[in-house]
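Assemble and predict.
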Amino acid sequence: MILVFLALAFVGCKDTEPVTPEAVEVQEMAVNIDHAFDNEPLAFLTEEYSLASGEKVFFKRLAYLLADFYLIKADDTRVNLADQYALLNPKSDPSNFTLLNIPMGEYKAFGFSIGLDSIINHGNPNQYPATHPLSPINNSLYWSWQGGYVFTAIEGDVVGTTDNFIFHLAGSNNKIDFEFPVTFTKGMAALDANLTYNLAEAFKNPDMFSLTSDGRSTHTTTDPVTVKLTSNMADIFNLDAITTAVE
Amino acid sequence: MRLSKKFILLIGIAVLIIACKDVINELPNTPFSTTPYNLEIPNTLPPANFPADNMPTVEGVYLGRMLFYDPVLSADSTQSCSSCHNQALAFTDNGEQFSTGIKGLKGKRNAMPIFNLQWHLDGFFWDGRADILRHQAIMPIQDPLEMDETIGNLLVKLNSNEMYKEHFKKAFNADQIDEELVGKALEQFMNIIISGNSKFDRVSMGLESFTDQEKVGQLIFNAEAKTVLEERDPKNPQNFGADCFHCHGNSLFMRRELLNNGLDSVHTDLGYGGVTGNASDNGKFKTPSLRNIEKTAPYMHDGRFKTLEEVIDFYLSGSHGTSPNLDPSMHALQYEVYLSPEHKAALVSFLMTLTDDTYLTNKEYSNPFK
């Protein structure tokens, strides 16, 4: 009888026994972005930086939107990672996010954009849940005056003065496209991508930007301040590596 | 030694009970269910944003509403939340600069309105000291300048009150009322208070039209003020932007961040800096919504401005340049900006379109004891 009860105890409670998980394909890529000002990590409020113009600044805010992520396979097939967006706000939030729906295969390039195409940019912003990257209350990058989003906000103070600067780069004509040639294999495991964002680039390459002579704020999507900063940002990202995630 | 069959049977049952303890514990003693609260949100507001662990239910919302209007929350049972948060005035305190607590003492900051709180992502109170709404809800109960009650006393009162015991049982299946549940009930009630049926909303949905004056006011609201000194001509009729949109530009008319709008060159009230201890946060306060602004006077964290005209004059005065930690969003207003009296009136007329009478009179938000 004891044996019968012991057997019942085990059989009756078999749901509590551990189940060995089967290996599954993880279609994800974890993207991490290191924000820098040339060779220094980017910090806010109290860290002083020298622009290429020699002007010294404190940064108070950097926020931007990434969209249109895609991969190019070795056979030139393009894999669009549709409807995926990222809000980067390194002053307050961790600078990482996860891209989904990445199939296995051999790849030769990874790309994305800072900014949004015209349809998304002028869509109803209230369609997004409050924590979505494109939710205005989440990103503080939506300005009704333009009926669209600010793609990059760079804000701060000029050291030693009461002057500040506020650059809001907006308008689908100012969407910046990036594509990085990089060879990697996507197997069952997830991928890790590491990028560096060098804010100093916006103020120096190819055209040096001066707060004094160029200006301390943007006004339209086509004004010279917007054009110069946006052009300079073409090299703002470096892709360090895409590797298979270590479990 | 030979064991009796009865003894073996008892041992066997014990083994079964112990082995299956987790399974047995998962079995509910009595059926418990609540009714989801059906909240219709107009498409001029974002989708619902309730905490996953405290979705509003009919039972929970009603309980929160009872608590909100019940003076039992205060030490001497003379004040409820509604004593300082009057629905007819967007749940602000009847034009008072500072509210008066049960001991006759004045608070330090202006009572804030209550609506659309589910979309506040970065804390509550003017200084952001409460991280989530259920924590906010508990603080005025204990504040010596407000209701001055202890949580211990309050729980004794509620746990000996048959009406509240029944309602907490219905809402949370709780036999014992605790601080967390009081906070959650109040959170549920305050989270379903929304304002999204102002004239602005109806115009946005194509149901009504702005007057010519309101249209001009909206342009002024959404236009940049001129900033470059040489371009500024105080009398230039083209120079009509008030630059409100940088901080109040989305359909919630607020920003999540706590910011310094340059009220003071010396921060006597540290605001967010008093919470974080960081000097770089001194002078920062919540960026409030402008919805129902017609009803929420006086204005600013310390209620220093009695009228919207005074607020507009402050923003156009260019007096903020020396305020430590001034937010760069104030860039365009760092110097004096000119607006004609007609344009100021137009701006006020646009702000008046943010008044939502449906919200101000919604019976679902009113005193359930009346």
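The mean pLDDT of chain B is 90.
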